[in-house]
Amino acid sequence: MKRTLITIFITAIAVMLAVPAMATQTIKIGFNIPMTGDIPEVGEGSKNAAEMYLADVNGAGGLDVGGKKYMLEFIYMDNESKADSAVNAALKLIEQEEVVAIIGPNSSKQAVPGGGTANENRVPMISPWSTNPNTTLDRPWVFRAAFLDPFQGPVVADFAAKKFGAKTAAVLFDVANDYSVGLAEVFKSAWEAKGLGPVVAYESNGTKDQDFSAQLTTIIKAKPDFIFVPENYNQVALIIPQARDLGYKGPFMGSDAWGTPDLVKLCGEQCNGQYFSTHYAAAGAKGATKVFIDRYMEKYGAEPADYAALTWDSIGLMVEGIKNAGVVDSNPRKMRKAIRDGLAAIKSFDGVTGSSKFNEQGDPIKCAVVVKISDEGTFVFEESVCP
Amino acid sequence: MDFIIQNILNAMQWGSFYALIALGYTLVYGVLRLINFAHGDIFMVGAYISFFVASFLISPFTGLSPAMAFIITVPLTMLLTSLVGVTLERIAYRPLRRKGAHRLYVVITALMCGLILEYSNLALLGASRLKFPELIEKQVWRFGDVTLTNLKVMVIVTAVLVFLFLQWVVTRTRVGMAMRAISYDKFAIPLMGIPIDRIIVVTFVLGSGFAGLAGLLFAMSYPVLEPFMGMLIGWKAFIAAVVGGIGDIKGAFVGGFLLGFIEVGVVTVFPSTYRDLFAFTILLLILWIKPTGLFGIPQSTKI
């Protein structure tokens, strides 16, 4: 009797030990995305794209790594679009969820600190949307899917000089946002390097500001030919109407943070006719990009914004990295190392946001597009700029 | 010169919002000696209420013209927001007052009520922002390099009118006399036959109603709504009320405009990083010289 009990007990323990061992047959990837806070649209779009990818892979029986199929498991963590919460979300994913890799944070404001956490803890991370160089700089464990601000700044400067025939420029940026500060600086030096004219006003604001009248009055007094506003869409929706109220009639130029459908919803007609640089344009897409856009639209009833497309590509990169690793190790530490090496081995990648080559920093070199907000409030392709 | 006049107008618009919210803080404090920390969030709720009322009125279902909708939205928003304020008083502050709780607990309750309003909004409506519909057709008047919109004028005029009205209520009416009496001695006042609870309800109706009005005007001026929009502006308006001398209507009005002028003034001259640093250093200096605020009277028991 006693022996039977012991046998049952041992069997039970063996089963309990075996279950997690079997559970490691899934590959756990964490998502560090802003579901609430300043840019909830971005988190939602990223999650939508991820869910679509997950359904594709797991629907086909899992991911084939070294001849064996593994299910993917995605864990979404809200970083409230705050820098400190992005670090906490990364730590939670690494320590509690024991993910083997992280996708996100999106915005540079969270991706710069979040990337630091991933790098220190030796977890491979891909930021889909971050364009600030510091996100991946000297961080061998951190990768990205988007182009960089040192590329985006000159794109904006060249386009404005050509399109508006501008001689002078003004900049309004968010001083508490790494992305905005970095891009404003790059743009300023790019503009001044062109030798057409000076940056006549260089004004800043806070993230939670709602009134920009003082900054805009200073800018308008300096009479710039155009105003560059590398800020999040929610602030743009306040800035442009306020500038018009203060009597500014010239054009605005924006950056990739403008590219959400919410910009048009919040800003209304006042934003129509303005231009911004971004990662891809949904209108007029061909090939794999068009297939992705059509499927996304069918599933969620809206066009995928650039962050959704970049999240899709980031997952694609991650899958490529895992395949390069060749084996799935049940030890998360070993698996993380293998994925990192797999990611570093990628030389070029064809995604829905275009093809890119990777340099030694792990940064992609790819084309940017300039998009116009049409009179109907849609984003229309204007031109493509390649490095 | 034009540049200075333009910035004075900018500051007056921004200061008007601080003044309107600060008036609500000071009114409740003046009567109950209670810092109603939920006031900034009542302002936020007011903005949301006005959004739903206005959207409903201009929808094809009712089909009113935007101008007509605006005229109806004003009283309706004030009424509904004051109901929110009174409800808070009824379910959160009054039970504590009845049990004779120390004021500290009531203040903490107010803080919690504010957070409850913010997060219930987040849970109910989600994190994505709302766009306030355009109710009055915007007109931009130009005088040389100075521009003025009809909305700006409306905001500033409203702030002045609300101030004059509240000043009149508190100093010239029977209700106002009762309010002042309660703040003197809330134990002796019921013995004089003054219905203390009813007067407190009137106070909350006035304070929250004008917070609702401020919310509506704010939403029209800055038409992007989010659940946390009332937090920062609420705190700053509270500080403005303290600097003006909390409990004094004139003080809240002057304090609100003062803060608006300092903030816009600093941003005009320095990078915006210095704004809050300079603004609050100046306010600290004012309190340092005059701890009761510009118009405040020293009191033996304050929080």
From TrEMBL, chain A:
InterPro entries: BCAA_transport, Leu-bd, Peripla_BP_I. Keywords: Signal. Residues 26-377 form the Leucine-binding protein domain. Residues 1-23 form the signal peptide. The keyword ATP-binding does not apply. Transmembrane segments: none annotated. It comes from the Bacteria. Residues 111-130 are annotated as: Disordered. Belongs to the leucine-binding protein family. This is Branched-chain amino acid transport system substrate-binding protein. It comes from Desulfuromusa kysingii.
UniProtKB/TrEMBL annotation, chain B:
GO terms for biological process: D-alanine transmembrane transport; L-alanine transport; L-isoleucine import across plasma membrane. Belongs to the binding-protein-dependent transport system permease family. LivHM subfamily. Keywords: Amino-acid transport, Cell inner membrane, Cell membrane, Membrane, Transmembrane, Transmembrane helix, Transport. This is Branched-chain amino acid transport system permease protein. One of its GO terms (cellular component) is plasma membrane. It is found in: Cell membrane. It is a multi-pass membrane protein. The keyword Membrane applies. The keyword tRNA processing does not apply. Its main location: membrane. GO terms for molecular function: L-isoleucine transmembrane transporter activity; L-leucine transmembrane transporter activity; L-phenylalanine transmembrane transporter activity; L-valine transmembrane transporter activity. The chain crosses the membrane at residues 17-35, 42-61, 67-92, 104-127, 147-170, 199-222, 228-246, 253-271, 277-297. InterPro entries: ABC_transp_permease, BCAA_transport_permease.
